[in-house]
Design a protein that fits this description.
Helix content: 40-55%
Strand content: 5-15%
Radius of gyration: 28 Å
Largest sheet: 9 strands, mixed
CATH topology of the largest domain: Creatine Kinase, Chain A, domain 2
Bound molecules: adenosine-5'-diphosphate, magnesium ion
Length: about 700
């Protein structure tokens, strides 16, 4: 019989409950303090914790442990070591020391370091992040760790994320003190990432080199039906998919992942899973785990889970909505509009901090979601445009308007909004008709950043968001600390902030073409369409200063990320282009040619029966397909030539731009010819499963 959920939830996690049960009280207390204060663990305590953790893991069937970390590849890394230790009598015992728990030394040399390796030591070390619990995955005790070089440079995504959480904590605490919140000792940002994905049949997947090598289809004529009937979104879930979701939930629950909501998404074969929000670094770990488990469980069900941002042309791609907020140590959400004028004043100030951050650091938010895959989504009418703007809703916008202009606000009894004196009206939370086209929306008590790509780690988006908001709060605290009339200064600060940053607020339809010209021409907002367009902003003087000020990235670290992201962009498109050339030359051309041969044979056969036989269909098709094959052959050769030229470009930004300007258009032309051929080729002769089969194949 299946266990009931509460019994196995978190059963594979060495969480607070397990620690309390297995650690001596003193050790448990010391451990809690370490987690709370983010301090280093005393070596004696580490030994006791390691031993208890090992006993727990071995009881659960684990034989190995690994430091589980998040290098800049965007996925997680692990290297397994067994617990065995030779004993003096020739046998072995299971052993795990505090030292092994706290620190590991994987060879860093094969992970992307974007030049950091050249300047610093090749070796790196991993250090336990005790704020994220250890867990068992497939018989391996996984210890969540940060990954740094010996020079102290972050080689991963977790270290800067933790630093950004510290930065926002520091500045938020300054602001909270100004409002007299003396009982609050710390704040953490919280995140609930909604994860979109596609599920397709594994057998069909195995027949497509493009899916295998690149995670997306590089060819494929549109099927007769796409998503136009809106019959998949929230539709009833097919039994095979339900079985998958059930097992996925069970596996995630065992790992303590708060998987909560599941539904079908807009495209056929597309689905979504949303967890309950939690502290940002844990949410990030959990999202990485979720993506991994999604793919593993799918295989068991004869399915493949595609996390690519745009696996199929013509239907929606996948993203990840990063729901973000700040919560204090008493559990209060700082973006929950309050009941009293005092609480409202604080809420408005925090709201302004985000408005300012999103406007001042539009470029960084855009950079935080920049990948070759996500470039297909942003601005293509299915996802937010590449322009960053912010949705607040009419009510909140009107309030800010009233404050900015000293105009009366309200229903019948209009009043002049005095911050800290008047109460805000209650605004509706999460109304169903709320704007879904905005890249950054206030949804009642949290912000939803909708531009993150489905395959991407959420670390980067949250690093940027936390740091940018920390900067706003720092400037606010600088201005408000020590001012003589707090309320008056607050009112004028909010007024100034709205005046300066209201250009970022846009409540209209972000998919509308007019918005693009309004945003760019009238408001001066950035429209950074592609990865190479936005990456130079990452290393601008303004942004390097931001990261340095808050201790989130050193200049070297930020430059290394610039390299890595651009290199990765180039490599991704290079693999895609090579895959296309391979598919055309080895599969598509020979297949179409064989089909043309059968058509020719039909013509000859018809002619041999009668001189006056009609072979209009065959002749026209032979001509059309011959034109297509000639084009494909030529275009594949042209693509290969351009690829060689592009790859030889030394400067990484120049190379990335050449991939964008020279390679991508040629890939498109090659695809057009192949897709045309697919439309009229006998299905049995086409070498790959069609879009129709892929998208509607899971029944
Ligand atoms: P929708 O699909 O309508 O955007 P969902 O309810 O599916 O909304 O997802 C909302 C997400 O926001 C969930 O993951 C939820 O846990 C998360 N969330 C709710 N409150 C907060 C908060 N205070 N901080 C961060 N995330 C939150
Ligand atoms: Mg959402």
């Amino acid at each position: 019989m299946m266990k009931i959920v509460p019994e196995y939830f978190g059963s594979m996690v060495f969480d607070d409950l397990s620690m309390r049960a297995r650690l001596p009280e003193e050790t448990y207390k010391a451990m809690k303090k370490t987690i709370r204060d983010g301090k280093h663990l005393d070596p004696d305590i580490a030994n006791i914790v390691a031993n208890a953790m090992k006993d727990w893991a071995v009881e659960k069937g684990a034989t190995h442990y690994t430091h589980w970390f998040q290098p800049m590849t965007g996925i997680t890394a692990e290297k397994h070591d067994s617990f065995i230790l030779p004993a003096s009598d020739g046998s072995v015992i299971f052993d795990f020391s505090g030292k092994e728990l706290v620190r590991g030394e994987p060879d860093a040399s094969s992970f992307p370091s974007g030049g950091l390796r050249a300047t610093f030591e090749a070796r790196g070390y991993t250090a336990w992040d005790p704020t994220s619990y250890a867990f068992i995955k497939e018989g391996i005790l996984c210890i969540p760790t940060a990954f740094c070089s010996y020079g102290g440079e972050a080689l991963d995504k977790k270290t800067p994320l933790l630093r950004s959480m510290e930065a926002i904590n520091r500045q938020t605490m300054r602001v909270l003190k100004l409002f007299g919140n003396d009982e609050i000792t710390s704040v953490k940002t919280t995140v609930g990432p909604e994860q979109e994905y596609f599920l397709i049949d594994k057998e069909m997947y195995n027949k497509r080199k493009d899916l295998i090598f690149t995670g997306r289809t590089l060819f494929g004529a549109s099927p007769p039906k796409g998503q136009e009937l809106n019959d998949h979104y929230f539709g009833s879930i097919k039994p095979r998919v339900l079985e998958y979701m059930k097992e996925l939930n069970e596996e995630l629950w065992k790992l303590g992942v708060l998987a909560k909501t599941e539904h079908n998404e807009a495209s056929p074969a597309q689905h979504e899973l949303a967890p309950i929000f939690t502290t940002t670094n844990i949410a990030t770990d959990h999202n990485q785990l979720t993506m991994e488990i999604m793919q593993k469980v799918a295989k068991k069900h004869g399915l493949v889970c595609l996390l690519h941002e745009k696996p199929f042309e013509g239907v929606n791609g996948s993203g990840k909505h990063n729901n973000w907020s700040i919560s204090d140590n008493t559990g209060t959400n700082l973006f929950e509009p309050g009941e009293t004028p005092h609480e409202n004043a604080q809420f408005l100030l925090f709201l302004c901090a985000v408005i300012k951050a999103v406007d001042d650091y539009q470029d960084l938010l855009r950079v935080s979601v920049a990948t070759a895959g996500n470039d297909h989504r942003l601005g293509s009418g299915e996802a937010p445009p590449a322009i960053i703007s912010m949705f607040l809703g009419d009510e909140l916008s009107e309030i800010l308007d009233a404050i900015e202009n000293d105009t009366p606000y309200g229903g019948k009894e209009k009043v002049l909004m005095k911050v800290g004196v008047h109460t805000l009206p209650r605004f509706p939370k999460d109304t169903t008709d709320r704007n879904r086209t905005s890249p950054f929306a206030f949804t009642g008590n949290k912000f939803e950043f909708r531009m993150v790509g489905s395959a991407d780690s959420i670390a980067c988006a949250n690093i940027m968001l936390n740091t940018a908001v920390a900067q706003s709060l720092m400037e606010f605290a600088d201005r408000l600390e020590g001012c003589s009339d707090f309320k008056a200064e607050l009112q004028s600060l909010i007024k100034d902030c709205v005046k300066k940053h209201k250009r970022i607020i846009f409540n209209g339809n972000g998919y509308n073409g007019e918005w693009v010209s309004e945003a760019v021409k009238n408001r001066g907002l950035l429209n950074l369409r592609t990865t190479p367009d936005c990456l130079p902003y990452l290393v601008s003087a303004k942004n390097i200063k931001l990261f340095k000020t808050h201790g989130v990235y050193s200049e070297t670290e930020i430059r290394s990320r610039y390299e890595i992201i651009l290199e990765n962009y180039c490599k991704t498109i290079n693999i895609e282009a090579l895959t296309m050339i391979d598919m055309v030359n080895k599969d598509i051309l020979p297949s179409v040619s064989l089909f043309v041969k059968t058509l020719c044979e039909t013509v000859s056969a018809k002619k041999s029966v009668s001189q006056t036989a009609e072979y209009d269909y065959e002749e026209k098709l032979i001509k059309r397909l011959s034109a297509d094959t000639d084009m494909m052959f030529e275009r594949a050769a042209g693509l290969l030539k351009s690829l060689c030229e592009t790859k030889s470009i030394e400067d990484v930004l120049e190379r990335a731009n050449s991939f964008k300007d020279n390679i991508i258009p040629k890939m498109r032309e090659l695809r057009t010819a192949a897709d045309d051929a697919e439309r009229v080729t006998f299905a049995k002769h086409w070498p790959y499963p069609s879009y129709g089969e892929l998208l509607f194949g899971v029944r």
